[in-house]
Write a structure and sequence with these properties.
Blueprint (H helix, E strand, L loop, with lengths): L2 E5 L6 E6 L9 H4 L2 H9 L3 H17 L5 E4 L2 E4 L4 E7 L2 E7 L4 E7 L4 H8 L2 H6 L5 H19 L6 H4 E3 L8 E7 L4 E11 L2 E8 L1
Antiparallel strand pairs: 1-2, 2-6, 3-4, 5-6, 7-11, 8-9, 9-10, 10-11
Length: 207
Amino acid sequence: MPLLNDLVPNEFLLCKLWRIEAGEYIMDPKNELSLNDYQLFLKKKVKQLKSQFLASRKLITLVDSDLKVTYKEGIPLLSDNRNISISHSENIATILISENKGIGIDVERINNKVNSIKSKFLNEKEMHYLRGYRETRNLTRAWTAKESIYKALRMPRVIFSENILIEEFNNESKTGIGKFISSNQERTFKLYFYDLDDYCLTISEEV
């Protein structure tokens, strides 16, 4: 049986999560996927990527078996016009659905490699307050926060270290605030943080 979780940040956000077990049966891609999704599935050559894709599609059918996903410029769109964000990392696949715009989700496995790229997505202030206790976990949390905001923005040419700012949080924080700032606009997002063993997951919602 799959390990399924529902995360409930608030009444407007529907989040489902699948912990993929090695070798488990998820769905029959040829008979259960839409034609477009089946073509996307065939393009994936790595077994883990295939499993992540199938798990995300199965989660969508658990919400509503009639729901279909299409893509426009790389952005997922639902057939009932609700908004969706999709993320996966190794053995985790997750979806976020809402009637509201400005939503995003990201999950990442905690890995020391994040320390070597932190200057690419954090500004000096963020790097300063993230130093110290459980730094790798908090860096991963910050990455998922910025990535979830980026998905919610649905716009190109965003520089994470300059345009997406995360207000200070600590290891105990369950929520946070992020901002997108450019030369002509400022947008604010509430962040919901989840620690899933050796993964970090963040949901963003524009406020």
